[in-house]
Amino acid sequence: MKVSKRIRSKIRSLMSLLMGGRDIVDALTSFYRMYAYQYKKQIGILLAGAILSGAIEIMGLLLLYILLRFLININSFDDSHIVIRTLNSFGIANRNHMAAIIGMAITVTFVAKNIYIIFYYHTQHLTLRRWKIDLGKRLMEGYMAAPYQIMLGYNSSTIIRNVNNIVAQALNGFVLSGFNFFSNMIVGLILLSILYVKYFTITLITASTLVVSTILQNKFIKKKTADLGRERDKLMVEQNKSVYQGLHSLKETKVLLRENFFLKNFETINNLTVDNDTTAMLYARLPSHITEVVIIISIVMISVVVLFENSHDSSLSVASLGILAAVAFRIAPIMNRTTAALQGLSNNLNSMKTLFAEFQKLKDYKLLNLDRKNINALPFNSTIKLQKVNYRYPKARSRALADINLAINRGEVMGVVGESGAGKTTLIDLILGLIAPTEGNLSIDNVLITESNTKNWQKNVCYVPQAVYLSDASIRSNIAFGVPDNEIDDGRIVEVLKDVDLYDHVMALDGGIAFAVGENGKNLSGGQKQRVGIARALYLDADVIVLDEATAALDVGTEYKITETIKKIKNKKTIIVIAHRLSTIYEADRVVFMKDAKVVDVGTFSELVGRNPAFEDMAIKSRLVTNDVASQAEIV
User: Which CATH number fits domain 13-362: 1.10.10.60, 1.10.760.10, 1.20.1560.10, 3.40.50.2300?
Assistant: First the structure.
């Protein structure tokens, strides 16, 4: 075992030297241990395929050497040669026929080799395709399954870059470069072995020169290409961000005449990205030209030696020079591909490191049986209860929720109000199961909510945000949200559209429920989008609907329609409404008033106006009560 470890260490050191650093070897090793070990059979086949490719190369070159010697001295060629004896055994004695057969054998060999190479590359790319699909899915799964709190720490542009670009760069740029390095190095060594047999010393010097040249090139260029790779990965995030910000705020951008601001931002990032690509391409081209010069000098040196050693036999000299030319013809592109592979490894090393880091962060998060229809809803028949709940965001000094004790009864409409930063959103996130209490507990009908039953509880909850997300699809698909088209219940779609007073409007649209809402619902008004969001919650038939500032951005008339919709469904569902506008919740069964991360009062709207000066002040400013009647808690 000790010898084995020592040998592995020596091989690792040698590969680190050839590949320009231990970090590249470590990254390839880590990729194998983390993921590719399960495909060791396919990897073995690919490496064996590279060896076979080299063997076919040698066969073709040996046949070419024999043909050249045979043609130069066709009539006096040694009858005892194995090729002559083999052809004679088949009854072929005519030397011209022999030359034709050898030529055909060379042609068949090289045609077969190139067909095989195409098949080899196809197999290689199919393997990478499988890995890209799998790793892309795993990465996306990790993001989708990660706790909400962890995902809040990500920028969406970073996630888009990682899923769309980093996986492809890590595999196409790094892993494929690793494959290419090893396969080309194997073929190159096999080709050089032809020269080793006859011209050992000069070939050893030549091979050493090529290796030293490659190492020096890699040493010189590696740091620069690695830096360019890191810079490229950062620029991709900034480029995604600049495009997203410019297009996502299109209306504000045009009204405020800020088109040039966002264009200049994009232009700056785009120029840096293009400069990065241009420099990277330049560095990628340098090694091939340096290698070509080294190979030409080496071949000239070997040719001189060949001529001196075979001055007595011109046919042998010509044949040897021919085979040298053939080897040079083959070895040059192989060395160029090898150095290009080294550049690919260093340029995409950061992408591989990023991929490792993301998988390390997300390794514990898996989507297990998360299809909504396969999850049993946690029954809710009585009360949602929060007891002595505290919550502190990671790295935050103060608590976002402090000593919360609250009970929400089934079938009631409960409003949650308070100034910005009071803790309303955190309270709702906790009820939704997106975060867990730092202290205290959340229970449903005395069943404690834990990590094991959070998804069961979420089956019974629906959330309607202030800005409802609508995909670029039909009204039907947006209401069903995530349900395959062939499983959507159109009768249920019609029913919930009537519940939210959208049925007549939708039926008047071109296509009815099949009407395409456009990107983020741009073909609908703000109020219509909100009601589609409520219809979605009703379609999914959850017992609890949470409306988060659902009317904050709407006009008074549309707010009234949403409020009427809430009244219409209040007897069917338990509704929790976060509101800045008190008019949205003035008819709620109870109102939770929050301040400084605490629930400071709970009661009906009138009760809070009558006993809580801070809430009374909010009601007066909202013009829902007057100063004259505030003390009697009379609602306007």
Answer: 1.20.1560.10
Cα 144 to Cα 139, 141, 339, 595: the distances in Å are: 9, 5, 39, 33
User: What phi, psi does 592 have (nearest 5°)?
Assistant: -100, 120
Q: Residue 62 burial by CB count (10 A; 0-12/13-18/19+): exposed, middle or buried?
A: middle
Judge contact between 98 and 63, C-beta under 8 A: no
Predicted pLDDT at 229: 80
Are the CB atoms for 179 and 47 separated by under 8 Å?
Answer: no
The encoded tokens of residue 438 equal 């730092």
Q: Which residues of 288-297 are buried (b: 16+ CB within 10 A; e: fewer)?
A: bebbeebbee
Backbone angles phi, psi at 394, to 5 degrees: -55, 135
Amino acid at 604: T
**Structure pTM?**
0.71
**Helix-, strand-, coil-residue percentages of the chain, each rounded to 5:** 65, 10, 25
> Which residues, 6 or more positions from 243, have their beta carbon under 8 angstroms from its beta carbon?
266
Determine the Cα–Cα distance for residues 406 and 205; give it in Å rounded to an integer: 83
Q: Strand pairing partners for 386?
A: 406, 442
Sheet with 401-409: strands ordered across: 401-409, 383-391, 439-444, 447-448
Residue 341, Ramachandran bin (φ over 0: left; ψ between -120 and 50: alpha; else beta): alpha
| pLDDT for the residue numbered 212 | 74
Low-confidence ranges of the chain (pLDDT < 70): 1-21, 65-81, 83-84, 95, 194-199, 201-203, 206, 214-215, 217-219, 222, 247-257, 287-288, 299, 302-303, 305-329, 367-372, 550-559, 626-636
Q: What is the pLDDT of residues 213-225, one digit of tens each?
A: 766 766 677 677 7
Residue 416's pLDDT is what? 94
Whole-number pLDDT of residue 590: 94
Token pair in block for residue 184: 């080309």
Q: Which residues contact 32 (CB under 8 A, 6 or more apart)?
A: 43
Cα torsion for 56, 57, 62, 63, to the nearest 10°?
70
Sign of CA dihedral 60, 64, 66, 67: positive
How many other C-beta atoms are found inside a 10 Å radius of the C-beta of residue 123? 14
Domain ranges of the chain: 13-362, 604-636
Contact 302, 199 (CB under 8 A): yes
Burial class (CB in 10 A: 0-12, 13-18, 19+), 57: buried
158 φ/ψ angles, rounded to the nearest 5 degrees: -65, -45
DSSP code of 379? P
Half-sphere exposure at residue 553, Cβ-oriented, CA atoms within 13 angstroms: 12
